[in-house]
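Example: ABC-type multidrug transport system, ATPase component.
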Amino acid sequence: MGISLHHISKSFKSVTALKDISFDVKSGELFGLIGPDGAGKTTLFRVLTTLLLADEGTASVAGMDVVTDYKAIRNSVGYMPGRFSLYHDLTVEENLNFFATIFNTTLEENYDLIKEIYVQIEPFKNRRAGKLSGGMKQKLALCCALIHKPKVLFLDEPTTGVDPVSRKEFWEMLKRLQQKDITMLVSTAYMDEASLCDRVALIQDGTILEIDTPQRIIEKFPRTIYNVKASETYRLLKDLEKYEATHSVYPFGEFLHFTSKDAAFTSEELIQFLEQEHHTEIEVSEAIPTIEDSFMTLSKEHSNNGN
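Written out as structure tokens, the predicted fold is:
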């Protein structure tokens, strides 16, 4: 009951939204689609949920073709779009009953599946959905997506605009749902959420850059990364961008993350260069690579290859 894509491409006039996308999501897997805004995540979700036809390629969800079996797929999947799309003027309870009726079921029939989530929003069941907090809206939307006990769940940037505590709670809920044999495809622009997935696909400009477990993607990182800091951050960035030894440099929290073209490069060389440029309060230390570093490097290589 997984997801399979083979050479999916989609264009909107002169804009290529998806370019030769192929990957499989195993049954019961929590699979992340990780990339920035405009990378093609939502377009891919719309193809897989039968809301958009691909120009090329084939795809199946829970063993059903997204073109020929679109009606059956719509009854077998849950879809939670990025933007809150429930009825603002209906109460929490009315929204749940409405979506249950559409799928010819009831809240009581599938209560076991949504119980852990529903108990958190039940105190607000008579409140209009539009008046809920961001975190509560997401929990309600998740309940509505699960109301018919779907085989596959699509979550398009579910934590965008949600506070850090609610984000953590939401991912904990997804982990518990995974234990109930629901296959999940989750898209996000938050790189730190990649580590919470079983496997991830990194996507940029409609192209898949890498597919693997988060840990293996990080282990493949090919260069030494340095945390770099000085008193004038903007000038530091500009000076490092023009430094002949620079392979990549970009902001990362309070530091800049720097990699060199030369495998034998040392931190002493970097400090010497910064001192020559009259920087002060210089800090340079070796950093542990993250999924964001891997994405930035793969994205740079993708751009350099002319894609």
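The radius of gyration is 22 Å.
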